Every structure is written in C-alpha cells, then in structure tokens.
Amino acid sequence: MTFDSIIGQKNVKKVLSDSIVSERVGHAYLFHGPAGIGKKLTARAYAEAVMCLHPNPDGTACGKCEACVLNKNHSNPDLKIYEIQKNKKGIIIEQARDIVQDAMTVPYYSNKKVFIIQSGETMNLAAQNALLKILEEPPKYVMIIILTTNIAVILDTIKSRTSRIDFARYDNEEIKAILKANGIEHVDESALAYADGIAGRAISFYNDDKINEIRGNVLKIAEGLAEGDAAYRIESAEYLASLKKDTEFVIYTMLSYYSDVSKVARYGKSVKITNKECENPIRMTASRLGFYKAQEIEKIINKAWGYTERSINIEVVMSNMLIQIQEVING
Ligand SMILES: [Zn+2]
Less crowded by CB within 10 Å, the N or C end of the chain? Predict the structure, then answer.
C-alpha cells in the first residue's frame, strides 16, 4: 500500500509525503473526517513509509527491506492497529495503557513503531487521559495516529499534542475511480448521491442490500402517492422518518423520481431517466401531471430537503412533504 494507490486526498497525501522528504515526520497525528473517507488506508500507507529502513528519495517505502516485507504480509510487529474490541462500545483505557507500555520498547525491525487508533471518537475521558502519557513525551521512534470522525470529543490536551489532518470529501470523478478499483464499472447517479462524497458509502451502495431495499421502498412510496389515502400517507411518512441516518438519500430518491417525471413530461418518452425500473409508473404519472405540476412537486421536495437539515422533527417534515405532493397531484 503506497500513497500512489490511494485515489484522491491530494492535499493530505502531499502534506504527509512532504513530511517524510523533509524529515519532519511528527510523533502524533489526528486524522479527521467522516467514516469511509480513507483515513485508515492513508494511515497505513503513511505508517509503512515511515517504517521503511531505506525509503526512496521521494519518501515512499522501498518495498524490499525487512520492515516493508513484513508490512506487505501484514505481520510487522512494529505496526499496531487498535480497534473497538468485541462487545465493547469504544476504545477502552486498557488499550490506551497497552499502547503506553508497548511504546517503551524500541521497534524490532522498522525505522519506527507505529500505533494506529481507529474510532478515536469512542475513547472516553479515562482512555484519552491514559493516552496523554505517551503524547506528552513520546520516544523518538514512536508515531501515533488517531483516526476520528468527530473532533469535538477529543481532549484539547490531545489536540494540542497532535498534528491535525483533515480529510476532504471526494468529487464524483474520484468516487467513480474508487468504485472502478473495487470492480464496479457502471455507476448509477443514485450511488453518487448516496455516497455524498464518501467512498465507503459508495461501495456499500453496491454491497449493502439494505440500501437498495431503502431505495426500492422510497420509489414505491413515490409511485403509490397518486392513489394512496391518508393512512397510506401516514404510514409512509413514519417509514421515511425512521431512516434517520439516510434522510438525505431518502429525499434524493424522492426527488430523482419526480425529476424523471418532469423530464418525461417535458421531453417525451425517449428521454433518459435515472430510475429505469420505474419507467412505466413514471410515464403514467408524467402524462397525468404534466410538466408544470411535476416541477411544482420537485420544488416541494427541495424545500423539505432544506427543512431536514434544520428540523428535529423529521416525521413532520416528511408528512408535510407527502401531503403537499398529494395536493398537487389531486389538485
Ligand atoms: Zn523499505
């Protein structure tokens, strides 16, 4: 694993590889960004580069020395990756103590001993305080990388002793490249929308049946609205509101359905649509509503989208959205 094989994150890669070239590698880093953005992959690549005994002039790992060979086999005892243990809610104090103790001994085979702590946002105060011991006076050969999705829960004393590296969201071209590297050639618009700039989400769109189930259900609700009664609407709003984590995707899917409707209403049957599996109901709705009504519905959904970002009561937002859509359909 080298930086070159990581797609995107240009700034992060530049900062880290520059630190190696200029021999200014820090003792401790805080990698910050949403889950699935590439923090772990990058931490590993950085670890392998600083552990290498004979790095290339550009700061990359040689791939041939003892440290590199062991890293390739995932069997280098000088690289420790800490994750949440089974049946535990977060990184625990015992793990932090383990790091402090382990850091006392020099690396066996490598230029540095590296500790990667995943899910740093789950460390409670006790664990963070225990970890501080090593951050206050790190031995020269030690590097610690804490990965976190939430910077607010990290102690100021840890923040001030670590270099913070922020991971940016990917653009759609980068997401496509990452999907391609994962064997997915044909990328749907819905996948990009669901991913929202996060590679891990894009990959789970194709591997996680639950997401496709949600998409199917939301499209079914959109289809059924024309005929549905109040009970149908209430039940639908409850369901949509229950998908808390995926609210954006829910709204996007609704919107994509009605933008297909307005496209067909405006340009006719031959226009390319996003939700091909709903082609028939989309055509029927298009001829029933016409372009202006379809556009009106798109506006309603967009407005609801704005409300979901501010509102605590998502069920009310969803319910109002469905009521307004039905009013336009039947009005
Ligand atoms: Zn090497």
Answer: C
- Judging by beta carbons within 10 Å of its beta carbon (0-12, 13-18, 19+), is residue 146 exposed, middle or buried? buried
- What would the two tokens of residue 164 be? 């913070």
CA distances (Å), 235 to each of 219, 220, 221, in order? Answer: 15, 13, 10
Asked whether the predicted pLDDT for residue 261 surpasses 80, the reply is yes
71 alpha carbon to ligand 1 midpoint, in Å? 9
Where residue 1 falls among pLDDT bands split at 50, 70, 90?
low
Question: 57 alpha carbon to ligand 1 midpoint, in Å?
Answer: 12
Give the residue numbers spanning the domain of 314: 208-330
State what percent of residues in the chain have pLDDT above 90.
65
Which helix (H) or strand (E) segment is 74 a member of? none
In this structure, the answer to whether residues 231 and 120 fall within a common structural domain is no
Residue 197 in any domain: the answer is no
pLDDT confidence bin for 248, thresholds 50/70/90: confident
- Entry pTM: 0.71
Tally of structural domains, the chain: 2
Distance CA 172, CA 193 (A): 9
What pLDDT shows up at residue 91?
93
User: Which residues crowd ion ligand 1, with CB under 5 Å?
Assistant: 52, 61-62, 65, 68
Shortest CA distance to 166 belongs to which of 15, 299, 317? 15
Q: Positive or negative, the Cα torsion across 83, 89, 91, 94?
A: negative
